[in-house]
User: What shape does this take?
Amino acid sequence: MNESVNDQNLKEKTAKGLFWGFLSSSGMQLLNLIIGIFLARLLSPGEYGIVGMLAIFTLIAGNLQDSGFGVALVNLKEAKHNDYNSVFWFNIGVSLVLYIVLFFCAPLIASFYHQPCLTSLSRYVFLAFIIAAASIVPSAVLTRNLRVKEKAITSLLALIISGTVAVIMAVKGFSYWSLATQQVLYNVVICVGRYYCTRWHPSFKVDFTPVKQMFSFSYKVLITAVLTTINNNVLTVIFGRLFPAQSVGNFTQANKWNTMANQLVTSTVSQVAQPVFTRVTDDNERQRRVFGKMLRFTAFMAFPAMFGLALVAPQLIIAAIGDKWINSIPLLQVLCISGAFIPLYTVYQNLFLSQGKSDIYMWLTIAQIIMMLIAVLACHSLGIMAMVIAFAVINILWLLAWQFFAHKLIGYRFTSMLRDLLPFMGIALVVMGVTYLVTLPVNNIYLLLLSRIIVAAALYALTMKLSRARIFEECVEFISKRMHQSPGDSNCI
Assistant: This one.
């Protein structure tokens, strides 16, 4: 009886977390889309390329400032003020040291890319990760308690303020500085908002014992996060070194649209996956059930979203940001195919982290990067498109490696993975194919874009309903209850 009640409570909390996570992610991506359209029309591919060259440095610095302790805090069975306080001061110290190092490395970064303007720009952009370091602890507090609603509201507010300022600056002729300011200001608002929501504050009585205790877990998360960042951004570094800023800008724009789409799903799932898995670590059967359902929910969202974006990419790019970005279209379509699998990685990764298996997480990521680099460099002579295709293929196939270790960890079988994923992938592919054929006679680009979105969405929903997909029925039931302001159960997970 108690187990049944616990299951139901966990389902309700998870469903609410996914609901607010989806609202947050969809709202964020919609705002990103609107703001991105304005900025892409105001700025050139070259200006985007300049800021894009700094992305990997900013993201790695962000990984280092966190040092994996944010994940470690969420993974604790019970977290106390001393744990939070220790991590806070450690992250602040690390971020200050890193900023000083990067400040003096700025001329080297500019020299590497042959862009003198990057010296001053990078010193400004890197301020963002000092600010972000201060928000890691309140973020962990919100995540541990599945307070996705508060995180959602804060993120939306930060994007609105930073995006509005960036657009105004672009109109006033501040060029790539508008993009840099958007990054810095976004982190400022996020930081302030999270402290307001949690009411947590640090104390000056510092004991680094908790940091030492969490280090064996967190350093592996850190290494993995850094390597994942390198894996996701290595093409930008290579292109920035070998090709003009305009080529980097086209790839950056394609990758931005791809990331916006897959983050809609990834962010929805990642905000609840680890804390939910952590609560069922003592029961393998329950873990497999929760893991399989989380995987189905992710596939249910990811495949139609990413395959759909690949379908409408030509019309969307031209209609939204203009012909000057036409060279980014084929790159976006390739990235979308592999982007459909990125949210699935998140489910596997959070499973390993919830079990304290950060070593598996680390070594799988290292192996993936090695395979990816070999494939990309082997295609170097064939051009940018071949390199992007090689990158995408490795990202898709490497899911099998994560599945292998998931089977060893909780007994989740390969056949179970196929049963959970293939129906959604197959239906999404068929729906996009039928949509393409049905809309072929439409010539107007705006009408074609609208008709493909409507037809694809309607066909996918109809197919889910006719096939009586349980995930679809449960999500519709939950949304219906929310609309009627009923606190009733949800079985979304």
The chain has two domains: 1-22+244-493, 43-242. Residues 2-42 form the longest helix (41 residues).
